[in-house]
Amino acid sequence: QVQLVESGGGLVQPGGSLRLSCTASGSIFSTAGMGWYRQAPGKQREWVAGIARLGTVDYANSVKGRFTISRDNGKNTVYLQMNSLNADDTAVYYCKLSTVTRNYWGQGTQVTVSS
User: What is the DSSP string of 18-48?
Assistant: First the structure.
């Protein structure tokens, strides 16, 4: 019913930048909250950033000052700009769309930070 597709992951050197995108199908994007999560090997999935319907944003302490979440309702897309990347940022990144009734998850995109 709602499909989320992430893109923009890849291999980047420490200190580099990437911008992730997540595009949603359907007509509910503009009324839904969006978030980014990540899961590193051997670790639990953790919340990274969130943005509400009207644009209010929040970040995990580990990424504050380095990552920026934004949304373009006209394109049904949420973005995660990631700067000053380090090895601890290596993970599969997932976007999530939240409605009153349920959450929808994308399939994830791999981000690898390595020299």
Answer: EEEEEEE-SS-GGGSEEEEEEE-TTS--EEE
For the segment 2-60, what is each residue's pLDDT rounded down to a tens digit? 999 999 999 999 999 999 999 999 888 988 999 999 999 999 999 999 999 989 999 99
State both tokens at 61. 């302490």
Enclosing H/E stretch for 71 = strand 67-72
C-alpha–C-alpha distance, residues 62 and 18, integer Å: 16
Short-list 88, 81, 96, CA closest to 36: 96
- Contact by Cβ (8 Å): 96, 35: yes
Q: Are 69 and 62 in contact (CB under 8 A)?
A: no
* Local structure of 66: helix, strand or coil: coil
